[in-house]
Amino acid sequence: MSKSPNLNRREFVTLVSTVVGSVMTAIVGIPAIGYILSPSLRTKKTDAWIPLGKLENYPVNQPTLFTFTRSITTGWEKTVNSYGVFVVRKSDTEIEVLSNVCTHLSCRVNWNEEKQEYICPCHDGRFNIDGKVDSGPPPRPLDQYEYKIENGDLFIHLKES
Amino acid sequence: MNEEFKKRYKEKYYSLKQKGVKFFPDIIYKDLVVSFGLFILLILLATFIGVENEPKADPADTSYIPRPEWYFLFLFQFLKYFPGNLEWVGAALIPGIAVLVLFLLPFIDRNPYRYFSKRKIAIGTMTIIVVGMVVLTIIAAVTTPPQPTSAGVATTLTEKIAAGQDLYSVNCVECHGPDGEGGEIKGVAGLEGVVVKPIHDNDVMYAFTDNTLANIISMGMPNRGMTPFGRPYGGQLSPSEIENIVTFMRYTWDDRAELPPEAAQAAAIPTLAPNEVPSYDVQIAPIVKRYCVSCHRPGKENNHYTMESYDEVMKSGDHAPNIVPGDLNSNLIRMIHREEIPAGGPMPPTKPLPADLIQIFERWVQGGAPQTAEQAKQASGSNPVPTATPSAEISPTSAATETQPHNTPTSTVQATSPATPAAEDLIVIDQFRKLLGLPELPVNFIEKTGMVNSPSGDLTVVVYQDSEGRLYSVDQISHQVVEVDGRNALAAVTEQSGAPTMEALKEKASQIAHALIPDFENLSKNLVYEESSKGDYIYFTWRDQNASTTLNKPFLQIGFYKNGVIFAFYNTLTLK
Amino acid sequence: MLKKLFNWLDERLGLTSIYNVVLDRKVPKVNWFFTLGSASLFLFLMQGVTGILLTVYYVPTPDHAYDSIQYIMNGVTFGWLIRGIHHWGATLMVLVVFLHMLRTFYFGAYKYPREITWLTGVILLLSTLGMGFTGYLLPWNQRSYWATTVGTEIPGTVPFFGQFLTNVLRGGSDLSALTLSRFFSVHIWFLPAVILGTIGIHLYLIIRIGISHIPDKDD
């Protein structure tokens, strides 16, 4: 059974349309996917030592909240991000710097002096003075910052990527 | 069209259809080919021509020549032929009628024939109109004057910061200082002696948003003496330019914003290798732009000494020449040493240039004030050790030093040699040579001098030379070797065998760095590592990009000759 | 299996009859000039796709329009390509649509029975120019700002109600944020809606009446 020439022609045009159509879709479509996704895939790079002032200003065994800001540019918009850390001084030289962001859903925790706990206001997650989970939903202890002390000044290493 | 024509048309069309082709595949095929051709054309246009970069809209810029999109150009040109009171005829009436006629064409053109020769009037009219439109478009395109060229539009952050720094240098430095430090204004008409507060600290950077800063630059602060710079208020700057200045200020002075490393690199004045002769293009131009051009440009009080190009720097001015190649008594050199001479007073008037920059100037003039890097390289070759050849010509500078000792801390060459080497320095050099594997030959004291490229700008070193010609510079505060220049000794060692691999050299450099600097492992986390090779020389560099100094960031550099011998060494990382 | 699926769909969607009516029809033999219509449609679709993509980042306010375009050009992967296609697509589309109009005119294709097809075609031509005019302002750069300032001044020359027309175009007496936002709205909603609807009628008439033939000496 031989096909008529006309049918061949049709098949040919169908084939060409499919190929040309796919090529065009690919040439526009693949860049378009990159175009839409690229800002979401871009990693924000922060790597800086933040000065937190004189170490002696921080009382021993008393978590003290220190807030600072960093300016960031997203797209064409410049904003200032705010960060909070708890500085806990164990002794003259030994300290811990804890993030105030709850490890559960990123609410900000507060230090409760009476209960000697960090309490998250959102889902009642509780952390002890070292940031270990006491109770509630948080999956892991509060994040710690790397720190250094230079000439009595405390610095923490802010690293985000 | 009467019924008979309609019937005839229908019959003819029917028979043509029967003799014709199927829409699919025949017509579709052609459509596909044309559309795909257009698609390829589009991609090529978008990729290779792209979209022209234009500055941001500036309603205050009256010099801009409005230009419509090309397909409206014919209308734009058409309007020029109508006098003012009849403008509406060309602008509205004729186009309006044209559109109306186009709409009603099937009802106006009642001619039942379709063949070209039977529709002479219609086809003739349309052809004239189309030719007219094409001609008008061409006339418009040819006759409209080109846009006054503006400098390339800064698009990336680095470009914006660089553009902002240049604008800051020209417009702001004379009052606010090269680093925004402010101080007492000198040499600015009407503002003599006014004290300007610093603008580079957190008081300004935290309290003022970008918008506020832009507004201040644009409108000025008339009651404090700051003139407006924005075009709408009588200044010269466009919104884009002001935005670039604000971007530069924000990224350079606000400690909450991180200056992109490539921007920092672009802003830094290129460092000099030991005994390299600087060139105008590479080192002098950036310094001049940052510290001098703000006043030394047309329209300012500067004895007609403008410094915007090499020729101007060398030749312009009432007291020209201000630079004589090879002569350290040139006006410019004396004035940056803060001498009062017939050509004028100390320069810059407010604050001395950092010592290392003065040295770059001196080395440049001594090396013959070359313009291009190429010429500078030749100059370096013919005069290999310019800084180590004290000559009698320097003495007037020394004389000036006696009256103003604090202003020339590093540049004077104290010709106290020969003298005995300090025992302490010899121990330091010996330890150092053991570490680097350099030959332990006897050394002689050469000079006590300032050092170029030092981060603090006022480092005093003692230079020793060994019997093969290597120069060792020992810092007198931290007591360590900060610089080795072994180029003179290269001839003696080139016979050594073999060319080590890049990996081996890298390994060696890394070992030296670790042995030399305690806690290098930890320190190197903050350092940017670079490898480079120039001809027979291979350099390994660790650069501290986080350091706060704006000029020469501290760095460690170890340079090998191709045979693996260390011929250059530089370390300012561990200075206090 | 595929055949079964096709039959199932055909029974419900009438794919075969669409094929018979739209694709499998006989038309007179024509030349390459008759591809200009489909080329216009193709370019319109390209403009639609790239235009939609541009709105992902574009912000139609004087504060951010320019910066957001800069971001598209430099910050986003392939942003330059998307905007490049849209920019050049506009130029090509005006050209191709105009040539399509000339082809229709020279071949007398606007005559009986295609008068309404012509009318819709003129609407499409004017809408295309309108898209060009409104789209030109959106990047909010020097060129677009000043071109639009002059462009919106033109109706102002009409005696009596000219100034009113200019004010309507600009949304006030000056070129402002209001001008930008109304041009944006017209560019992405009003005109595309008009164009889509008119293309529908245009295509329906072409399928119903059939494409015109190349006139010979007897016509």
Within CATH, the superfamily of chain C carries the name Cytochrome Bc1 Complex, Chain C
Calculate the mean pLDDT score of chain C and round it.
Answer: 93
- By oligomeric state, this entry counts as heterotrimer
User: Can you count the beta strands of chain C?
Assistant: 1
Sheet-strand content of chain C, in percent, reads under 5%
Which tags fit this structure?
heterotrimer, B: 8-stranded antiparallel β-sheet, 10% strand, C: 219 residues, mainly alpha, Cytochrome Bc1 Complex, Chain C, 71% helix, 1% strand
What does the model show?
- The complex is a heterotrimer of chains A (161), B (576) and C (219).
- Chain A has 161 residues and is α+β, with helices and mostly antiparallel strands.
- Chain A folds into two domains: 1-42; 46-160, Rieske [2Fe-2S] iron-sulphur domain (Rieske Iron-sulfur Protein, 3-layer Sandwich), CATH 2.102.10.10.
- Chain A has one helix and ten strands.
- Chain B is 43% helix and 10% strand.
- Chain B contains 21 helices and eleven strands.
- In chain B, strands 4-5-6-7-11-10-9-8 form an eight-stranded antiparallel sheet.
- Chain C has nine helices and one strand; from the N terminus they run H-H-E-H-H-H-H-H-H-H.
- With 219 residues, chain C is mainly α.
- Chain C is globular and about 55 Å long.
- In chain C, helix 3 packs antiparallel against helix 5 (79-106), helix 4 (65-74) crosses helix 5 and helix 6 (115-137) packs across helix 7 (142-153).
